[in-house]
Write a structure and sequence with these properties.
Elements (H helix, E strand, L loop, with lengths): L16 H11 L8 H8 L9 E5 L5 H10 L3 E6 L2 H13 L6 E5 L12 E7 L8 H11 E14 L7 H10 L8 H11 L2 E7 L1 H16 L3 H8 L1 H20 L2 E9 L8
Parallel strand pairs: 1-2, 1-4, 2-3, 4-5
Antiparallel strand pairs: 5-7, 6-7
Helix pairs in contact: 1-9, 5-7, 6-10, 8-10, 9-10
Bound molecules: S-adenosylmethionine.
S-adenosylmethionine binds next to helix 3.
């Protein structure tokens, strides 16, 4: 299955085999976002996962889903994604690690999530909401599938303001070549509140990723280059060096603003 676009037309996956291989070299096997397990644990700090039911929204190739399963010990974690190559990778990795009794993956076209109301204790997401332009509809869906009293703990790539995006960030997004629907923390928090979430918080991770990305670019140009070229070829690596260079500019300006997000669905009988 390929994902379908806004009007139902089939679209090619953006996270194809080459992207999965390249990002695996840079960020770790099965990871399609930066920071490794430590950053995932930071997103989840203080969230009660053990024995709970968790949704990993936009799970990608499953590296993070498996990390959560192994380290945080949920009763069940469901990885959800709209693209097929990442889901296939995630399923294969889960079978290889013998974790199929705890971890499963579901894919469907973007839009309404293929889950009943109120089935998850925790909704986790790492750097996937950026691909959903309609933040109001997105948070309404995540709220719907959470149990009363459930928690949303996520990371995403936000834009630092509500105005017209600068030429620099437009250049960066064009260099990525991915469909990004970036929005400000004000818009995220308003969309969360509109959906019914309480205690919404957005914490900037710009300062952290600004430094980490600089290191990624240096490694890509130096010690990691040969491994990356072996995985995806020289042209692919050079294109990404240009992308990372464009990204560093907007990280340094603060316009590209990765952030952690938290919110809760009120417990049954509790009025927000
Ligand atoms: C940057 S990757 C992050 C993947 C994973 N969370 C990680 O950090 O390794 C973004 C993921 O969002 C997925 N995605 C794109 N549109 C989506 C949508 N409408 N609903 C859910 N996931 C989506 C992509 O297929 C991709 O796997």
């Amino acid at each position: 299955m390929t994902a379908t676009g806004e009007h139902g037309a089939a679209v090619e996956p953006e996270y194809d085999e080459a992207a999965i291989r390249f990002l695996g070299v840079l960020w770790g096997e099965g990871y399609l976002s930066p920071g490794g397990p430590a950053e995932v644990d930071r997103v989840l700090a203080g969230v009660d996962i053990r024995g709970r039911t968790v949704l990993d929204f936009g799970c990608g190739a499953g590296g993070i889903t498996l990390h959560i399963a192994k380290t945080h010990r949920p009763a069940e974690i469901v990885g959800y994604d709209v693209e097929q190559p990442v889901i296939e990778r995630a399923r294969a990795a889960t079978a290889a690690e013998g974790l199929s009794s705890v971890v499963r993956f579901v894919s469907s076209p973007p839009g309404r999530l293929p889950f009943e109301d109120g089935v998850f204790d925790v909704v986790f997401s790492k750097d996937a909401m950026i691909h959903v332009p309609d933040k109001e509809a997105l948070f309404a869906e995540l709220f719907r599938v959470l149990k009363p009293g459930g928690v949303l703990a996520a990371s995403d790539w936000l834009i630092g303001h509500d105005g017209e995006p600068s030429a620099d960030i437009k250049d960066y997004i064009a260099a990525e070549g991915l469909h990004f629907g970036m929005a400000s923390s004000r818009r995220y928090l308003a969309a969360m509140a509109q959906a019914g979430f309480v205690d919404g918080v957005a914490e900037s991770r710009n300062a952290w990723y600004r430094d980490v990305a600089r290191g990624e670019l240096e490694r890509l140009k130096g010690p990691l280059r040969a491994q990356a070229v072996a995985a995806v070829g020289e042209a692919y690596v050079d294109k990404n060096i240009r992308t990372w260079t464009a990204m560093q500019k907007v990280l340094d300006s603060g316009e590209h603003c990765p952030a952690h997000l938290r919110g809760s669905k009120p417990a049954a009988g509790v009025r927000p």
